[in-house]
Amino acid sequence: MALNEQTDVKIDDHPHVVEGSEESEIQKMFSGSTVFLTGGTGFLGKLLVEKLLRSCPDIKKLYLLTRPKKNKDIKKRLQEQFDDVVKFIFHGAATVRFDEVLKKAVEINVRGTREILKLARACTKLRAFVYISTAYSNCHLNEIDEKFYGSNLSEDMLINLVENMDENTLKNITPGLLDNLPNTYTYSKLTAEDFVQKHSQGLPVLVTGGLGLLHSLHCNPQAIADMVPGDYVINGIIAAAWKTAKDYLGNYEHSPVDNFPIVYNYVSSEQTPITWDSEIMYHKIIRKICEKYSKKYTKDLQARMYGGTDRDICIAVVEELKMPISADEFERQLNDLAQKMLPSAPLQRGAERLLTHLHDYKIPMALATNSTEQAVRLHATARPKLFGLFHHKVSVNDPEVFRGKPNPDIYLVAASRFPEKPKPRQVIVVFSCLVFEDSAVGVIAAKEAGMQVVMIPDSRLDREQTRQATLVIRSLMNFQPELFGLPPFDDIPKRKSSIESNPD
Hints:
Layout: H1 25-30, E1 34-38, H2 43-55, E2 61-65, E3 86-91, H3 102-121, E4 128-133, H4 155-164, H5 167-178, H6 184-198, E5 205-209, H7 230-251, E6 262-265, H8 281-292, H9 299-305, H10 310-320, H11 327-341, H12 351-360, E7 366-368, H13 373-382, H14 384-387, E8 392-394, H15 409-416, E9 434-437, H16 440-448, E10 452-455, E11 471-473, E12 499-501
Parallel strand pairs: 1-2, 1-3, 3-4, 4-5, 5-6, 7-8, 9-10, 10-11
Antiparallel strand pairs: 11-12
Helix pairs in contact: 2-7, 3-4, 3-6, 8-11, 10-11
C-alpha cells in the first residue's frame, strides 16, 4: 500500500522462517501491543485476525468483541477492563445489508461506532483507531477523494429519530433522509464517518474502506467489476494503522489534534479496470471450441499462445489437448466463430484516446499484427472510423511478410511503408518507431527490428516475459507520450500512473 511518503510498506508472511531476518517496521510497531477488534467474525474480520496472528506473531493480546447469534451462546466474553493495555483498535463490525431497515442500520453502524469510539477514548495507550468503512459511503458523487464529506443529520439526531419513532413513520421518512444515497447501508456508514470526524479530536484515527459482497449476478459482461482482493484490503488496513501510529507518536508534541483523522480509500483502479468478463475475445473463441469436445483450454496454455499466428495456435492447441479434430478443422471453426464474435470484441481502455491523440498531432501510425487479413477486416468493419486512422495495415499473410512474430518481418514491412523513410529499405532507421504490444513474441519481434516497445501485458502473462520491453504499463491510460518525445495528452488521468521501466 503506497502511503504519503511515496514508498511501499508491507508485511512479509512467516517473518521468522528465515533465520536472522529482520522484522519490518509494521511488525515492530505491533510487537508487544494489545489489539481490540470488532467484526472479527465477519469476512474482512477473519482475514484481519489471520493476518495479524500469522505476520505479527509478537502481538501481546488480541481481543475480539462478539455477540450472540442465531441462539448460539458466546463461550468467552470480552473482558471490560483493558483501558491500560489496548494500543490498536480495528472497528469493522457492521450490518452490510443494503436493504436493512433504517433503525437497525443506524443502531449497528452509527450507534455502535459511537460506543466503540467512546471506548477508544478511555484507552490511555491507544496508538491507532481504524474505522473500517466502505468506499461507497459517498457513491452518489462522480469523484470521491480521501476526505470527509459530512452527513445531512448528526449522529445524535439520527439515533434519537430511530429510538423514538415507530417503524411505519421511520419507513415513510427513510427516502427523504437518504436523499441521493441508494440505501440505508451507505447512509448509515456516511453518518458514522461524519461522527468519527467530529468526535475524534486528540485520537490517532483513520477511516479506510474496501468491501466485497456479490458472489454472482446477471450483468453486462463489459461493465467494470468494482472489486478488490480481500487480502490486499487487510494488508492496507494494517499498514494504514502502522502509518497512523507512527505519525501520531512522531507528531504528538507538535499538533496531535490537527493531523487526524485520516482517510484512506482502498478501491479498484480507475486506470486498470477489470470487467466482469475480462477474457480476451480471441481466447474465448478458442475456449468455446475446446469445450465443444470436452477439452480444457487452461490459463497456462492460453498464456503460451499470446502473440502466435492463427495457424500456429491451432496446431499447438490440437496437439497439446489431443483434440479429436485436425488443425485444419480447428482453424475452420475458429474462423467461423471469429466472424460472429470478433466484431463485438471490446477495445483496450485508452486505445481510442491514444490513437485519436496521435492522429490529431499528425503522428503516422500503422497496424502490424500476427492476425490474418480476414481478422483485421472483421475488426475494421466494426470500427471503421478508428481503423481509418492507420496509414496502412500489415497482417501475417501479407505478401511481403515471410515470417510472423517473433521474427521482425511484420514490423520491418510496416516501417517501410511510411511515406517518410530513408532509402534503400535495408537501411531504414527503425529505432524512431514506437511499438505497442501485449504479447511476448510481439515484443521480441519489435526489438529484433530495432524498435522501442511499450508493453501492455495481460495479467496472466509471466513477468519474466515482459523483461525485453522498453516500458511496461498496466493500461494504455497509464501511457505518457512525452516520455518518447510525443505531444502530451490534453486530458491527464486524475489518478497517479503505475509504470514499470525495464532496461534494454
